[in-house]
Design a protein that fits this description.
The protein is α/β, with parallel strands linked by helices and 257 residues long. The protein is built from 11 helices and 9 strands. A 6-stranded mixed sheet has the order 1-2-3-4-6-9, with helices on both faces. The two termini are 31 Å apart. Helix 3 links the parallel strand 3 and strand 4. It folds into 2 domains: 192 residues, Alpha-Beta Complex (2-enoyl-CoA Hydratase, Chain A, domain 1), CATH 3.90.226.10; 48 residues. Helix 5 packs across helix 6 and helix 9 runs antiparallel to helix 10. Belongs to the enoyl-CoA hydratase/isomerase family. It holds the Pfam family ECH_1. InterPro entries: ClpP/crotonase-like_dom_sf, Enoyl-CoA_hydra/iso. GO terms for molecular function: catalytic activity.
Length: 257
């Protein structure tokens, strides 16, 4: 399959929809798919017309983890040092629409999205311990922050399978819906971010949240104060206040490249 076909790209106004597209393999992850995903995210980050990104899978799955057959024939390292955690450094909000089974690297990619919608019957597993692997791709940093150390250890050590409803109860996902409604709900949410929220504000807030995971309260508070002062020099605040008083949708400027 040509690399361009492994992830489909669709622009829906200011929302970029990326679809993992290997449905015959439950969208299992390949080295070329990895490179294309990173390229597309970085391109979206620099594209002023994109204000939010939605990631989903074609067919009945989101991403079943690494395609082991592709791994057998791939070079051990292709020189691309970008990690899945690149997602949290992208300034635009990334929403995962988890429509079906998700495992291993697919789960990591979903968890590093900023907001996660999931089908209530989607199957989740970390998978790594059942393949003789370790907690890869930064999941050992993120997972305890989402669900706590004990639950993270349970999910990583056992690699047990859980459904979307339990994933929601544990805090792995933020919304759980019937399978047929997941993508629509994620796109509607992304559209609301793209049309009603300041791109500059969202970029700053995203950076604050992830930086705050490893900083103390005093550091986070001081950083917030500095950012607030800078925010008043941007046109976004004036437009936000003006649109509120005029009872209309705000017209915020895009992020620069």
């Amino acid at each position: 399959m040509p690399e361009d076909d492994e992830i489909l790209v669709e622009h829906r106004d200011a929302v970029l929809l990326l679809t993992f597209h290997r449905p015959e393999r439950l969208n299992a992850w390949t080295p070329s798919m990895r490179r294309r995903y990173f390229d597309l995210l970085e391109k979206a980050d620099g594209d002023p017309s994109v204000r939010a990104v939605v990631v989903t899978g074609a067919g009945r799955g989101f991403c079943a983890g690494t395609d082991l057959s592709a791994l057998d024939s791939a070079p051990e390292h292709d020189g691309d040092d970008r990690a899945v955690s690149l997602s949290i450094r992208i300034r635009k909000p990334i929403i995962a629409a988890i429509n079906g089974p998700v495992a291993g690297i697919g789960l990591v990619a979903a968890l590093f999205a900023d907001v996660r919608f999931a089908a209530e019957d989607a199957k989740f597993t970390t998978a790594f311990s059942r393949r003789g692997l370790v907690a890869e791709h930064g999941i050992s940093w993120l997972l305890p922050k989402l669900v706590g150390a004990g639950t993270a250890l349970d999910l990583m050590l056992s690699a047990r399978t859980l459904l979307g409803s339990e994933a929601h109860a544990l805090g792995l996902v933020d919304r759980v819906l019937p399978a047929g409604e997941v993508l629509t709900a994620a796109l509607e949410y992304a559209h609301s971010l793209a049309t009603e929220c300041s791109p500059a504000s969202m970029a700053e807030i995203k950076e604050q949240i992830y930086a705050g995971l490893d900083s103390g309260l005093e550091t986070a508070s001081a950083d917030a104060n500095n950012r607030m002062i800078a925010a008043f020099d941007r046109p976004d605040v004036r437009e936000g206040v003006r649109s509120f008083h005029e009872r209309r949708r705000p017209d915020f400027p895009p992020l620069g490249s």
